[in-house]
Structures are given as structure tokens and as C-alpha cells.
């Protein structure tokens, strides 16, 4: 297509600007408009504007006003997911955009016209930029279990309260049952709905116990890691906006005694680089030295994508563990078949293995040290040897 051909000719920086930032800006703008129009529709009398004028009941207009504000807050969450490059955020935004357009249409308010127009405009743009949001949403087993428990308790309370509606004062339909479950499990308890039989009292007690437990577990498992990640960034780790600026940089995968001279050399030469390591103490030390660091497993694909391996110029891997280095090399090679990868082997028997993993150059520290020791013992100048090993005489 013509649009895709023009897009491919743009510089990389413009591609990132056109795709990621504009998509996020559109999602946030739709979210803001959805909240504002929803609140205006709730606070004002029923309107009568648009092609559906006269055919939408007042109760439906008020309902879509309330749900429109709620959808706007959900759009904010999906925009934040887009900012992290998550595929789940892309899908959520793609689903919510038609919803906001329909809600704006049903509100029958002239203030909803910008919401409808922008929602419809954002859909083809989001489809066009789908390949830019490829990060998988990684949830642990604990997080999945906590989310499932929270949903399960709400379902248990809703259907149970509806089944026992004759034993409650104020429950007439499923919405009333869900409302009762939500305010009971969250310990709000307005008191407008109450049990009138021993069975209903026992059921309410079970909802209180299970609801409080599920909310507590869910907050700890789902919100806790996000808070911890935010604190980590505050303490000096790279933010997503900083990662977006990486271009033509060197990636150093892993950190150890062998990596320290590499980092020092790159830092002294004022070369743009980023270190990816799962060692928290090493990450803190590097951050204190104003060195870019991403705390993550360098053998996983997700952190390498976050560190913009597609824009990197080279990859250096040199820790004290050849097995971990091989995994990091293999992952980097799969993500970027054309990138130059250089690594060091602590055991010279692993040189071939690292080459088969995808390294372009493998330096055996044992052989290098042996050459230098012999030349030094014979009283020769070791500089030509170093130059030859580094390929400077070629």
C-alpha cells in the first residue's frame, strides 16, 4: 500500500514518533473526551440531538453517560498499556474505541460529536500501527490466581445473593445482587440491603470473609509489583521514555567481573550503551554511576525488546558464566539476525558452543592471557600481540 511505502521511507526516529507516541496520544485524548462527555450527560437533562433523536429512552442516555465515564477510565489504562508496548493494550484499545463511539452516539448530545469523530479516526490508525505493539503481557501464576479469586468471589456473591433474593430486603434483580456483593466484599456496607433470614446472614458472612481476603490478595499480587516497579524506576533505573530514545547503541547483556572493564571503556569513550542485568545490586551500582541499566533477565526476549535491540549497533556478552552467556547470545541472535554479537569465553572449550549459539566473535580469555604471559616472560612488548588479537594490524 502507498501509506506503508511512505512509512517505510521515514527515518527510524520518525517511525517511532508516528507509531507509538501518536497512538498513545489518541488513546488518551479519546479517554479524556469519554470522561468529560459522560459527566456532562449525567449532569444535564436528556438531550435530543443526532440521527437517533427521539428513539433513545432517557434511562439509556443516563446509563451510557455513566458507562461512558467508566469507559474513559478504562481507556486511560489501555493507553498506559500502549505506552509499555503491550499487545494486550492494543487489543483493549481496539475494543474500547468502537464502544466509546457508540456511547457518544447514544448520548444524543452535540458535545459527543468530537468523541465520535476521534474514536472512529483512531481505529484505522491503530490498525495501521499494530506491529509496533508486540510486547506480551507477563503475569505470574500468583497474579492469575489472585485475579481469578477476585472474579470468582464476585460471581459467588452475585449469583448467591440473587438466588436468596427472597431472604434479602432490597434485592430484586442481578444488578442489585452484584451491588450488594461489591459493597459487602469491599467492607463499604451502606446498609440499604440487609439479610432477613439465618441463611442469608450466614451467606453474607461468607461474602465478607471471602471478599476481604480476595481484595487483599489481589491488591498485593496485582498492584504490588507495579508499585515496586515504580519505586525501582524512581531509584534510578531506566524509564520507558528513556528506553524509547535508545538508538544506534551498544547492548551489554549480563554483568560480572569481566563486564566491568567493558562498561568502563564504553563509559569513558562516551558511547551510548545500556546494560541488561538481573543483578539488583549491580544495577544499583551502575545507576549510581549514571550508567543506563535495565534490571531484567538478559536471556529473555521481552527486556531485549524494551532495550530496543532492533535499533542497536552491537551486542557485548561477557559474564563469568558461559552457559548464561550462550542463552543471551541465542536470544539476541533470534531477535536480530543481522546484529554483530561479541562475547568472551571463560572456558576455551566453550568457544565453539558460543559461536554455534550465534556469536560473531568469541574471545577466549585463557588463550589471550596465555599469549600475553608468554610474551611478557620473554621480555617482548605485548602491545603488538594485543593489536593482533584485536585485529588492528589487518
TrEMBL record:
<keyword id="KW-1133">Transmembrane helix</keyword>
<dbReference type="InterPro" id="IPR036291">
    <property type="entry name" value="NAD(P)-bd_dom_sf"/>
</dbReference>
<keyword id="KW-0407">Ion channel</keyword>
<dbReference type="InterPro" id="IPR050721">
    <property type="entry name" value="Trk_Ktr_HKT_K-transport"/>
</dbReference>
<feature type="transmembrane region" description="Helical">
    <location>
        <begin position="112"/>
        <end position="129"/>
    </location>
</feature>
<feature type="transmembrane region" description="Helical">
    <location>
        <begin position="141"/>
        <end position="164"/>
    </location>
</feature>
<feature type="transmembrane region" description="Helical">
    <location>
        <begin position="20"/>
        <end position="43"/>
    </location>
</feature>
<keyword id="KW-0406">Ion transport</keyword>
<dbReference type="GO" id="GO:0005886">
    <property type="term" value="C:plasma membrane"/>
</dbReference>
<dbReference type="InterPro" id="IPR013099">
    <property type="entry name" value="K_chnl_dom"/>
</dbReference>
<dbReference type="InterPro" id="IPR003148">
    <property type="entry name" value="RCK_N"/>
</dbReference>
<feature type="transmembrane region" description="Helical">
    <location>
        <begin position="200"/>
        <end position="223"/>
    </location>
</feature>
<protein>
    <submittedName>
        <fullName>Potassium channel protein</fullName>
    </submittedName>
</protein>
<dbReference type="Pfam" id="PF07885">
    <property type="entry name" value="Ion_trans_2"/>
</dbReference>
<dbReference type="GO" id="GO:0006813">
    <property type="term" value="P:potassium ion transport"/>
</dbReference>
<feature type="transmembrane region" description="Helical">
    <location>
        <begin position="89"/>
        <end position="106"/>
    </location>
</feature>
<feature type="transmembrane region" description="Helical">
    <location>
        <begin position="63"/>
        <end position="82"/>
    </location>
</feature>
<feature type="domain" description="RCK N-terminal">
    <location>
        <begin position="247"/>
        <end position="364"/>
    </location>
</feature>
<dbReference type="GO" id="GO:0034220">
    <property type="term" value="P:monoatomic ion transmembrane transport"/>
</dbReference>
<keyword id="KW-0472">Membrane</keyword>
<keyword id="KW-0813">Transport</keyword>
<keyword id="KW-0812">Transmembrane</keyword>
<dbReference type="Pfam" id="PF02254">
    <property type="entry name" value="TrkA_N"/>
</dbReference>
